[in-house]
Structure prediction request, 872 residues.
Amino acid sequence: MLLNIKDLRVKFKLDSAEVEVVRGIDLQIPKGGTTALVGESGSGKSVTAMSILRLLDKVAPVETSGRIELNGRNLLELSDNKIREVRGNRIAMIFQEPMTSLNPVYNIGSQLLEPLIIHRHFTVPQARREAINLLERCGLQEAEKRMGHYPHQLSGGQRQRVMIAMSLACRPDLLIADEPTTALDVTIQAQIIQLILDLQAEFKMAVLLITHDLAMVHEIAQTVYIMHHGHLVESGPAQEVFHHPRTAYARSLLDSAPHGEPPEMTATNEPLIEIKDLRVEFAQPGSWFKAREWLTAVDGVSLQIKQGSTLGLVGESGSGKSTLGFAILRLLASRGEIDYKGIKLNKCGARRLRALRRELQIVFQDPFSSLSPRLTVGRIISEGLRVHFPELRKDELKERVEKALDEVGLDGAMAQRYPHEFSGGQRQRIAIARAIILQPRFLILDEPTSALDMTIQAQIIDLLCYIQRRYKMTYLFISHDLRVVRALANELAVMKDGKIIESGTAKEVFENPQAAYTKELFKAAFAF
Amino acid sequence: MATPDDKPGRRRWRQFKNNKLGYYSLIIFSIIFITSLFAELISNNKPLIMSYQGQLYFPVFKTYPETTFGGDFQTEADYRDPYILKKITTKGNWTIFPPNPYSYDSIDMNLNVPLPSPPTRRHLLGTDDQGRDVLARVIYGFRLSVLFGFALTIIGTAIGILAGAVMGYFGGLTDLLGQRFIEIWGSMPELYLLIIFSAIFKPSITLLIILLSMFGWMGLSDYVRAEFLKGRNMDYITAARALGVGNGAIMFRHLLPNGMTPVITFLPFRMSGAILALTSLDFLGLGVPPPTPSLGELLAQGKNNIEAWWLSAGSVVVLVGTLVLLIFIGEALREAFDPRNQEA
Prediction:
């Protein structure tokens, strides 16, 4: 065994109370193997990873007990100097968000040279050669030129490659990958995972993969540990855990992957919204004397959204799909034609538009930033009523808010509370309640599930289906998660670089994609 | 799950109370300030209550001509005049004076020492160079300074929030023009303007408040502008726009509560700044007109009569005390609003 964790407990000491986040887990990582630690957010999986390298020491008021043995040596008892020799040298770690884990003021080269010079005692020219080798090995093109670049000049995938190169610099025995692909696009995700697997074979290192993505684990891990509320609920060889889960929690986690068919279209073929040649351009910051440069985010899009249907709009980040959604609601200025039931939205005056907003609503991706932290939930939900039905009395407002909360599966008494008291899934339900209280005809769902855990995702999708059936709403479902879209959408449009590449009924497109990009996207998304 | 009373506001208040220094400073400051609001009952040359020929009089609250008490003039009675004093305290008449029987502008005519006179039993902090009681002037001066500070802070904060909100929320050209205006406005020499205006207009507290507010809002508007610039791109603002909420409501109902942190944190510091501004203007003779009680004017007298230590001592102690209390309160507020200092 390379790493042996015995009865690890991690407690956070807060002003008022102690919170035990990791409650006695035992975990073994064999040499050269791939071990996966799976759990939902808040299950304690990242804290476990951080405590292996004792990264929480002195950062947070934390108390750790148990044993973490690396080749028989207890890491928890090492002095600060000794643990520093382990960090990055014997055990390396890569993080979820590659933008914040690289230092923005140093170029890639100097950040890569540092571990080589400190841990492997290379001279500068030696280190430089090795660094270029590593970058090339990690699939970064023009490695020599990239050495002089700064993190902001690289894309997310490229930054993650640099992070991996950095972590490999000292040929560690163990690589801890904490959600290494969550912040990346699907096509990039597949590449990065493949890269980690290739390097693992080449460097003969063990990998501890921390993730919430079960599908990915299934393909690549030999051993799987499932964590829930700080406990290990299930562990064993991957095949066994996947095919014969022993505990109810593991089963519910496995079942929560989006599946099923979208509801039959109740709709007529009449379009509710018709877009013709829509363009959105952003002015790039430039100097006073130079002509402004424009970035085209949405480039001549034409679309039809049929009444009562769900149009899935998919694409990678930066493809302009959210921008398109915002432009339809006129939250962003655009050129072109947006026709809603015969009304030209782009020609509406402010007053007319404000009245129409009752029928056109939106739910955002991040339920943490979409609810104002200083207003009560009741206040947040009733805001639309106050604007559009100013004649409503206080008790009528209260009644409608309670009904809306009830509709989304929350308790009416929660209206008195503030958003920070709720979990992500509950917050997303509140955001949905805010949108549906006005009973809109058309609802834009901008990645409504991507900030949520798997099991919660499934619940929110069920809720959205229920609401659509009940109120006969038309959805525009924007997502990068093709599995979710497959479970929801009747129609599908694929977007890339501001253009619609392919569109048609969901069934057609999923079964028989035409464009090369669509094929590539599907291949990456359904790879695992 | 948190309890329903766990509003952000309550949590901040708990955190504020945790800072003992700031919390007790707030209590002490409030007590002193509220007491000073009743300065007329503490330090006044008019009796609180008196009985003259079997009838009760309340001179603090009502003006009586001297003739009421057997004097010769139709003007208001001077109760410290030995002639009147004798009439109202003998022959079964009685009078209760406030603890310090002088007002800020009452001149003690019966001193037979050169002015300014040092502290005695009669004048606990001595008198100034016109024979006015220093203690009385310090009490009234404190009240005026704090009230002035409140007024200036409230007006400056209101203008600052409004200007910052408009610039930050609308951004673009509005922001550009607003910022250039602030740069030009901010480079005007405030002191010269004060000198010029005090030559044109009759100096008064109103004029001072107007002039100082015209310049006092800029620092705060920058912070509010930054908060609004940051906040206007948040999803919950977009959500409010999607609901059809008007600009004004978005600014003041959705954005402002989330951008209040710098505003509240700066309040005590702005107040101490305002008090200091008034004191320095008074010291330079550009402030409130005589005989308004003012700490700065007392300091100026202290400078002119350097051997009369009691003149400066009183105002220095009050001024330093007030500013220190306000700064402690401000520190505690800042700590309570520090996002890094949040209970989980």
